User: What shape does this take?
Amino acid sequence: MTKKTGLLYVGFGSLSYGILATVVKYANGEGASTALLTFSQYLFATVFLTILAWRISKSEKVLSKYSMPSKVLKLKIMLFGTTLGFSSCFYYLTIQYVPVSVGIILLMQSIWMGVLVDLISTRGANVRLKILGALTAITGTLLAANVFESSISPHPLGLVFGLLAALSFTSFMYFSNSLGHQTHVIIKSKYLVYGGFIVVLIFWNISIFESFDFSDLLKYGLFLAIFGSMIPPIFFAQGMPAIGTGLGSIVSSIEIPFSVLSAAVILGEDVSSIQWLGIVVILCAVVLINFKKI
Assistant: This one.
């Protein structure tokens, strides 16, 4: 794959993930419950990926290039996939209490959390640059979340769920990139989604059936499954190796302004100039953190 194609893959994967919160909040406004939406997303993703993985596993060409995961590796991938499920649950809960434009900013606290993980795992490589980037990201967050506007007071639960979503997402990104490199991306994604689906079932349990509506299941589930649980991980896995993690992180941050813009256009959320300034600062932080990797 060429670098240009890799950029397109990572960019489209980011745009795909960026629209999720807006669709979920819109669906909530139409009466669909968060429990059912999350369940439907992982249900359809599980079905689709199981079928795709089965077909791929029968291909001799694929088997000659990739190895089939062992039982232990399957369990590990599923275990790490639970962080994906927690990320979705907490993120969708976040936007019940705060605007989507604030929710995506809270989710992107994974930027400085990722820096912290990176510093620990690399034993302090480029410490000053990464710390400066993390502080820049936090400054941008304060601006983008409008915390300096005295008339605005974000709901405490929204803040808690948003930070939990960021922590879960950081864990998912770290764990999903730490194993299964010799496994085909579709097969690996299948087991990641299996782990996420188990979390969703346990997390929402009876709420899924109390709010069950077959029309909402079909109306939103297919879209959320394709654009939330299939395209992002598959496209990232294909595109990241071609462009590298540094440039990949910068390109994937397009998710932030796209999510905010879609919320403004589709949901009519008001986004102030200060918030847009904060978003620009966060994007600059992403570039700063990954400057040495470009």
Q: What stands out?
A: DSSP finds 15 helices and no strands in the chain. The mean pLDDT is 81. The CA atoms of residues 29 and 267 lie 10 Å apart.
